[in-house]
Design goal:
Elements: H1 3-36, H2 40-72, H3 77-86, H4 89-137
Helix pairs in contact: 1-2, 1-4, 2-3
Function: Required for the efficient initiation of filament assembly.
InterPro entries: FlgN-like (IPR007809), FlgN-like_sf (IPR036679)
Organism: Azoarcus indigens
């Protein structure tokens, strides 16, 4: 594959990830709202959609890492910085803006996922306390 084709594929992958992370953000919000309202069926359905989307995102991330490595011979953030440096000003600015938008969305989704996890864990803990306390409530003394 030529360098230009690798760059186009990398840029397309970043664009697809931006779209999918926006979708993930919506799913995480749906999950939160379902958890707040204690709608277990909705939590399960949204959870399945999140897992499927996370698999797609992970596969695309792995492809991006491979493409960036082929283009720059670097790993991690250094690879993207080197790729940006290879580009003329206009395409560089567009790709950097997409990359920064993707990084922002990843951070947002991680924070939302942590929020959801905390809520679900708190709800589980409360339910366990209620169920375990109730067993002791009616024990004859």
């Amino acid at each position: 594959m030529k360098r230009k084709d690798l760059l186009l594929r990398l840029a397309a992958g970043i664009g697809a990830d931006v779209a999918d992370y926006n979708r993930l953000r919506g799913l995480l919000q749906e999950q939160f709202e379902a958890a707040v309202c204690h709608r277990s069926e909705a939590i399960a359905a949204v959870g399945e959609a999140i897992v499927a989307l996370a698999g797609t995102l992970e596969a695309r991330r792995q492809e991006r890492v491979a493409l960036a490595g082929r283009l720059s011979l670097e790993k991690g953030a250094e690879a993207m910085q080197r790729i940006f440096a290879m580009l003329p000003p206009n395409p560089r600015e567009r790709l950097q803006a997409s990359w920064q938008g993707l990084e922002r969305l990843v951070r947002e989704c991680k924070a939302m996922n942590q929020r959801n996890c905390n809520l679900l864990m708190e709800q589980h803990e409360i339910m366990q306390r209620v169920l375990n306390t109730e067993a002791d409530t009616y024990v004859p003394r």
